[in-house]
Amino acid sequence: MLKKCLYPVAGYGTRFLPATKSMAKEMLPIVDKPLIQYAVKEAMDAGLFEQAFVTGRTKRSIEDHFDISYELENEIRGSSKEDKLAEIRHIRENCVFTYTRQKQMLGLGHAILTGEPMIGNEPFGVILADDLCITDGDPVMKQMADLYAEYQCSIVAIEEVPKEDTAKYGVIAGEAIRDDLYRISDMVEKPAPEDAPSNLAIIGRYILTPDIFDYIRNTPPGAGGEIQITDALLQQAKQGRVLAYRFQGRRFDCGSLHGFVEATNYCFEKFHKPDE
Question: Is residue 225 part of a domain?
Answer without folding.
Answer: yes
